[in-house]
Amino acid sequence: MRSSNPLHEPAAHLPDGVKMPMLGFGTWQISGEQCRRAVATALGAGYRHLDTAAMYRNEAEVGQALVDSGLPREDVFITTKLLPADAARAREALDDSLAVLNVPSVDLYLIHSPPEEGGPGIWEQLLAAREEGLARAVGVSNYSIEEVDELIEATGVAPAVNQVRWAPSVHDPVFLAESAERGVVVEGYSPFRSSDLEDQTLGAIADAHDVTPAQVVLRWHLHHDIVVIPKSVTPRRIRANADIFGFSLTADEVARIDALAG
Q1: 62-86 pLDDT, tens per residue?
Q2: Given this model, what pLDDT does residue 2 score?
Q3: Does the active-site annotation cover 56?
Q4: Beta-strand (E) ranges in the chain?
Q5: Please, are residues 135 and 126 in contact by the beta-carbon 8 Å criterion?
Q6: Which class for 152: exposed (0-12), middle (13-18), buried (19 or more C-beta within 10 A)?
Q7: Closest Cα partner for 80 from 118, 129, 43?
Q8: Among 47, 56, 109, 143, which one carries the catalytic annotation?
C-alpha cells in the first residue's frame, strides 16, 4: 500500500525550490457535493496535490474539502487555471479564484489554453502575480513547444509546467525532450480517457505486478518524470490510483508501453 507519509513520495522540482507532487488528484467534470466528497476521499487516501480550474466551477468545493480535512495549507499543493475568457484580466481572475478557494495563494497558476492573441502579455501578468506571492509557480496548459518558445522569447522566463493530455497512446518522446531542454515540467491529464485499459500489453504487465492496468498507466507516467492527475469519483478507484508506489516497471515494460503510441 501507499506510504503513510506522502512527503516521502517523488516530486517535480519547479523554480525557486517549489516541489510539486508527481501524483495529483484531478477534478475536471466533477462538481458540487460530489466534488467535495471526492476531494475529501482523495486527501484521506494521501493525495497532497489537487488540480482545479476556474472553468471547472468547483474551486469552492475543492477549498471546502481542504478546510474540512484539517490538513495544514502548506501540506497540500493546489493548482488552478485561468479561464480563457478572463485572459485579459489574469491578475484579477486569480484574485477571484483565491477568494473562492479560500486560500491566500496557490502553488501553481496556469494559463488554461493558448489565447488567440496577446499570449506574452498574459504571461507577464502571471509572472507579476508570482512576484506578488499569489502563486508560487506559474505555467501553461495545452501549449505546443512553439507556443512555449514565444513566451520565453518575449520574457526570458519559461513556464514551470505545461499541462497537456498524456497517455501511452499519445506518448511523444520528442515533446518530452524539448520540454526538458527548456526546463518545463510536463504534467499529464486524462491518463485513462486516452488509454485502452483492456489492452493486452497493459494487462500482462499489470498481472506481473499484481496491480491494475490503470495503476500501470500511472506508474508509467512517473517513470517518464511526467506529473499525472487521475480523476475519479469512486472511493475504491481513488484509493487504488494512489497506491502506485509499491512497485516499479522494468525498462523492458516501459518500452513495451511506449510502443503503444499511435
Answers
A1: 999 999 999 999 999 999 999 988 9
A2: 40
A3: yes
A4: 11-13, 19-21, 25-26, 49-51, 77-82, 106-111, 135-141, 161-165, 185-189, 227-228
A5: yes
A6: middle
A7: 129
A8: 56
Global pTM exceeds 0.85: yes
Grid cell 499543493 is found at 77
Mind listing the pLDDT tens digit for each residue in 150-198?
999 999 999 999 999 999 999 999 999 999 999 999 999 999 998 999 9
Nearest partner of 65 among 20, 108, 105, 25, judged by Cα: 25
For 118-157, how does the pLDDT look when each residue is reduced to its tens digit (9 = 90+)?
Answer: 799 999 999 999 999 999 999 999 999 999 999 999 999 9
Question: What are the grid coordinates assigned to 123, written together?
Answer: 504571461
| Alpha carbon distances (Å) from 197 to 167, 193, 194, 214, 247 | 11, 9, 9, 7, 18
Contact assessment for residue 64 and residue 27, using Cβ atoms and an 8 Å cutoff? no
Q: What is the Cα–Cα distance from 186 to 243, expressed in whole angstroms?
A: 21
- Only one residue has cell 506574452, namely 120
CA–CA dist 91, 98 (Å, integer): 11
CA separation for the pair 100, 103 (Å, rounded)? 8
